[in-house]
Records
---
Amino acid sequence: MEKKIFIKTFGCQMNEYDSNRIYDSVKKIGFKKTNDQKNADCFILNTCHIRDKAKEKVYHEIGRIKKIYKEKAKPIMIVAGCVAQAENQEMLKREPFIDVVIGPQSYHKINDLLKKFVSNNQKEETEFDTISKFEYFDKIKNESNKISAFLTIQEGCDKFCHFCVVPYTRGPEYSRPFSKILSEAEILIKNGAREITFLGQNVNAYSYFENSKEYRISNLINELEKYSELKRIRYTTSHPRDMTDDLIDCYANNKKLMPFVHLPIQSGSNKILKLMNRKHTVEEYINTYEKIKKINSEIEFSSDFIISYPGETNDDFNETLELVKKIKFINSYSFIFSPRPGTKAADLKLIDYEISKERLNKIQKYLFDHQISMNRSFEKKSIEVLVENKIQGQSKLFGRNKYLNSVIFDGAENNIGKMLNVKVESSNQNSLFGKIENNKSMRAA
């Protein structure tokens, strides 16, 4: 008998990709995707360990689910992802409602684990087995039919930044075979994808050797350029150390690569970068920025910032502020440092919270002001938008421009999947609002 499965996804785009592939897998053993959280036979929380209080958010979500199913049959409760990898035994002991925990490099075993839980109550699978995982999913068709699709090309990290759990939850760097990525990209394009975003914890560290030749992310980008149905290419998340010249050259030679670079720096102080073990300097970062801007001055950057990392002085923080003023990032993430168990920085002395909060507010003012200013610069102008979907419960359409800005406007569902010119009438910090111009719309199919 067919059973219903619901997955709630937290965190990064890679988790969204993983959730879609889990759906593709469990379908083979009789589980059907449902969007109804209140009537599921199996409930999966695909978790992220990057942000603050990630573990507590999981327990809060489980408490909510327990209330839903208080008067009805309990679903199989699975905690997946990076929190499951890092906290597996503790979670099983603390919350009896959890039936199974499974780490992100064990998703190829999800079907067996579900069957084993039903038959003999096996509860855990958290081994690192990245190669087997991708070999398994390479045999299962990716059934995602989104206009803007994610495609994981690389997982894991060898950088060991002192604040980061990724090497412990995703394992060492692994790059998928070049041909397998292209095969999956072809499937996504046939399914209707008009934009593909390559994903990886260090996506620009992608390196696959075959027949004595190295294939890098630049090769993947240039191959995707050849598919006429595909209109846009993106990638995330990058490490400054891996912004090699062959990748930078893509911005000069590839018309489908979007002129938007998300390149986390974390701090504008070389002292703090060294304490973080980031393995790059501010000067190297600026050199990369200037190389890319020289190719095309319209290319824009976003970044990530950790505020009040242990040891950060006012002078260090001011250096970060100066970098923000210099580069004028159009959309960035900034957070006060919070320690992650098992990392090198876990036991370092924290900076006073009030000081940290003041610094965060100060840097966010500059980041948000420029973001608002950038969005206002689009007003009264025509921009090209890839229409992704209809907003649920509304008559409006949702799409994005080349800089990844959200664009909201009135339109018919038959515009989904098209590239349209939209005249921007107003904006706020996060979105642009406009109307379709009466011109030739270019079909993205």
Note: The chain is about 35% helix and 25% strand.
---
Amino acid sequence: MVRLILIRHGVTEWNSDKRYCGSRDIGLNDEGRSQVKLLSDKLNALRFDKVYYSHKKRAMQTARILFNQAGMIPSRGLREISFGMIEGLKHEEVRRKHASVYENWLKDPFTNNIPRAEPMNSFKNRVERSMRSIVRSNSGKTIAVVCHGGVIGIFLAGILKTRDFWRCVPSPASVTVVEHRKGKLILKKFNDTAHLKVIPVRKTGLSNGVSDE
């Protein structure tokens, strides 16, 4: 068995402003750092054999706060999807400037692309290749993967065989657990944010503790 502990980075200023970040290299804000320190207390009881992280600043900072150890492995395959022409824009700005393109993309991002963005199917293939490589290289181990909401969301959408990508995106500084057993990926826990206590978290479509056995 391989146990993947999927960790979304802490919140950034662009997350707070509801801006599309994607490939932009935005770091954690003060709230994000506080979230990750609370998460660190939760993870202290666990033993990780390896830590993989997206090379983007917000994920790298999260990994360093959580683990602060040598030998962590950066992975470009774990980077967030590029949002093309809507990167840096707030939701209301996108709705105002690119209404029809945006609405079609929200309804079905797998068949409707944002101009200059990474196609959703290409993103899905990239993330699944990276995750499969991690699983193949770590039989019998517990692995931390520090990355992005979209990366975790597209990976889970594949496991659950759903095109409803949005409901699979977890909150900042959350923990999601996936196990690989007998050739099958199984979602054991989704979007655990109990460690954040009084810090508000964004609601998502799936409930905590989802099991797909």
Note: Helices lie at 13-16, 30-43, 57-67, 91-97, 99-107, 120-136, 149-160.
